[in-house]
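Weekly structure sync, notes
Attendees: PL (lead), two postdocs, one rotation student
Agenda item 3: pending single-chain targets
PL asked that the sequence for the first pending target be pasted directly into the notes so everyone works from the same version. It is reproduced below exactly as submitted, 116 residues in total.
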Amino acid sequence: MGAVTRTPPPEPVALRRQLAAEFLGSGFLAAIVIGSGIAAQHLSPGSTGLELLENAAATAAGLFAIILMFGPVSGAHFNPVVSFADAAFGGLRWREAAAYLPAQVAGCIGVPWRPT
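Predicted structure, written out during the meeting:
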């Protein structure tokens, strides 16, 4: 039998890249939720149950995609409550969780907004 080789652990990602990933991921999530709600209203006017189902399905698919994109970089928290809960359970340092907060809030406000 051959020797077993171990893959070295990945290098830590710079905080700057983590914050950028949280900013973009939070913004994309807000845009997906807003956009799927608008689309559901146009697809099924007057059918509230169907609108909610369409919104939930589109949001789940979008969240899955952005978790795959940004999860390896920042952990894909996209929500300050999730970041602070992760810090409380030891998965994230408190300093990083505190740094994620403004990036997540700014992403949710800045990315989906556009002048009309």
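Discussion points:
- The two ends are 66 Å apart (CA to CA).
- The domain at 15-110 is CATH 1.20.1080.10 (Glycerol uptake facilitator protein).
Action: rotation student to compare against the earlier draft before next sync.
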